[in-house]
Design brief:
single chain, about 130 residues, alpha+beta, 3-stranded antiparallel sheet, 3 helices, about 50% helix, rod-shaped
Length: about 130
């Protein structure tokens, strides 16, 4: 009877440790994916800030606020080291906000740097109608 038990196990391969080996291969990939995902979320947040900054400054300039005040509002809303530019043409005001996002060094995966940009154009308000 003991011969039959040993005979049945001779044809089977020993899989001890295969789960550990698979985990050792997969876990670094999962960690790298999670880090890339965190960076992409931070880029998405920065894009929202750039859009909000352009919109806020364009509205302020369209209301007739001082240009320095409006650009300060945009710089406060925008990500760090963003550039803000404004222009007037006819009855509109256009504000452009751009921000350069470097790929983080801690990512350990070479990713390209990204430049985010948003442009908001608003019709100026006519103040002569409000008496």
């Amino acid at each position: 009877m003991s011969d039959q038990r040993h005979h049945g196990q001779l044809g089977r391969r020993n899989d001890d440790g295969s789960v550990t080996a698979e985990a050792a291969v997969v876990l670094p990939l999962v960690a790298a994916f999670a880090l890339v995902l965190v960076w992409m979320i931070s880029v998405g947040i920065a894009q929202v800030q750039v859009v909000d900054a352009a919109r806020d400054a364009a509205r302020a300039l369209a209301r007739g606020d001082d240009e320095a005040v409006a650009l300060h509002v945009a710089e406060r809303t925008a990500p760090d080291h963003a550039t803000v530019a404004s222009s007037r043409s006819g009855g509109t005001v256009t504000v452009t906000v751009s921000s350069h996002q470097d790929a983080p060094a801690w990512l350990l995966v070479p990713l390209p740097d990204i430049t985010l940009e948003s442009r908001a154009t608003v019709d100026t308000e006519d103040r002569s109608d409000t008496s």
